[in-house]
TrEMBL record:
It comes from Aeribacillus alveayuensis. The keyword Repeat does not apply. Residues 20-80 form the HTH tetR-type domain. The keyword NAD does not apply. This is AcrR family transcriptional regulator.
């Protein structure tokens, strides 16, 4: 499921929100447009048309498109969507049993690749804003630590005990894996999306890189 689809479900069910129905329509429209076209390519007139409101209605609530993004869209995504997808990642990847560390790594990379492929226009905005806003960064870190980190560490320790990967601090192993996979996703979808990528080959090379780097040399 895409972030925009998930966001619409949460907004429709949210009974505690202080947003009016018009505001909810604006937020849903903004997230859908940002997901499809990206932030820079989306105009407030397009958001208004999608939401079925006058463009002036947006500016009565939000001074600029950026204000709409920072004050409502990003906090709403972090509040509702991020924990859901963190839990989904845990269920789909981290709570399974694997016959080898390589099988685990392969599953992890393919899972994140499919997620990024479905959602990268909105993820691009997320990545950019998290770097520049400490509050958003703190929320993201909290979600990672709450839902993902300990289970990731547990898997690393399991395969270290089996002798499949090097005895280096598990925290370092997690950091290396995340930085490698994140780097691949950035190159694939943000830095060089126009490149004629052979995704199966790139995933395979990424798996080999991680496995060779973490191989137990004893």
């Amino acid at each position: 499921m895409k972030i925009s689809e998930m966001m619409e479900q949460f907004l429709n069910k949210d009974e505690e929100s202080n947003m009016s129905e018009k505001q909810k329509k604006i937020v849903k429209a903004a997230i859908e447009m940002f997901s499809e076209k990206g932030f820079a390519a989306t105009s407030t007139s397009e958001i208004a048309k999608k939401a079925g409101v006058a463009e002036g209605t947006i500016f009565r609530h939000y001074k600029t498109k950026k204000d709409l993004l920072i004050s409502i869209v990003m906090p709403t995504i972090i509040k509702y969507v991020s924990p859901f997808f963190a839990k989904s990642f845990v269920q789909e990847v981290l709570e399974n049993k694997y016959e080898s560390f390589e099988v685990f790594i392969r599953k992890l990379i393919k899972n994140r690749y499919e997620f990024a492929k479905r959602n990268f226009p909105i993820l691009k905005i997320y990545i950019q804003e998290v770097f520049y806003h400490e509050e958003l960064r703190g929320e993201f870190q909290n979600i990672f630590l709450t839902h993902v980190y300990e289970k990731f560490i547990k898997i690393v320790k399991h395969f270290q005990e089996k002798g499949e990967i090097a005895e280096i601090p598990p925290e370092s192993v997690v950091r290396m894996i995340i930085s490698t996979v994140f780097g691949y996703m950035l190159a694939r979808f943000l830095i060089s999306p126009e490149t004629n990528w052979d995704d199966e080959l790139e995933i395979e090379l990424t798996v080999r890189f991680i496995m060779n780097g973490l191989k137990n040399q004893e």
